[in-house]
């Protein structure tokens, strides 16, 4: 399978990339690691006429300690997250979730910024990002703005980014310690989650997020409220499918996904020692 | 677009269409047909090569993304025409192949794995090769070959 023809532009900096996507509008797509976009282009589900390659922008691969949070350049690969000493000690859930994306070859090329901007409701990293209560920095022609993770995912493969913006940085609060867990349920090792659940204690509260239970990654608000009200993990987990709109596909019906969400939430809370 | 890619130590300057996938650049432009196309959907790993020392699926990368980078394919692994790379030797010794179609990708993925983890456990080898499918289901001996190549006793 070969993608449809496109014009290829390589950006040397994020400023240049933003100028290029502003010039070409919604005909252009940014290419980072390409591990979400290229498969879609091969299937001709995505047919951009201009590709702006940011893969060789050199200064966006950092993982930096910024006192109360960790700042991650948009081009940091899943592999670099998975092996980052800083994340392993200060934000271990993010390192762990990154290690569950795809397979080693995918993790060598795929980037955190690309994965979040792709806004696939079945992806692992958006769920970790939501559970942690992180934010994204978007750069556009008028400068930078910070978008809260909770406001970033707006629909099925849709984000709050405008056609003229790119993600340059991801910020996550530090959440050291062992009170976290990620349950990814799938049939084959390298697959997307049929349902996934991330649970983490951060900034004094328990946050729970769901993968593939709606058109966007979701926070399990009812579970969080039940826990805050003193419910046990088993009682709170019963609320996991509240307010969700689970998809149906060859792998699972919405009813089965709702069941999985409840079971996986209980397992995640118990494994994280949250009750 | 003109790209300059160093493949197995030799730099080639070639004019490619931007939509050319790395695997077709290797196979059709450079004639390096050791890298196979299996599923063509980033699942099976038959097309695994190294880019800057790390395993990648060359069906899911554009040749233009490899501009200025170092690529290694199965053809570049053996030190000489009459000597195999230790990983290839280990696959032969432990019967780590049947039909052989997945083998170039398996070997490249296995070399990348040992580069990152020089003494993996059996579970780590199995997880480390999760991006490579063998339709003969010869996983048992493939895992054995990788463990043996890392210097571990598999008897």
Automatic annotation (TrEMBL), chain A:
Residues of the signal peptide:
none
In Pfam terms, one family for this protein is FAD_binding_5
Query: Molecular function terms in GO for this entry?
Result: FAD binding; oxidoreductase activity
Entry-linked SMART domains: CO_deh_flav_C
User: Which part of the chain is the FAD-binding PCMH-type domain?
Assistant: 1-177
Q: Which PROSITE patterns match?
A: FAD_PCMH
Q: Which InterPro entries match?
A: CO_DH_flav_C, CO_DH_flav_C_dom_sf, Diverse_Substr_Oxidored, FAD-bd_PCMH, FAD-bd_PCMH-like_sf, FAD-bd_PCMH_sub1, FAD-bd_PCMH_sub2, Mopterin_DH_FAD-bd
Instruction: Tell me the keywords, alphabetical order.
Output: FAD, Flavoprotein, Oxidoreductase
Q: What is this protein called?
A: FAD-binding PCMH-type domain-containing protein
Origin organism of this chain? marine metagenome
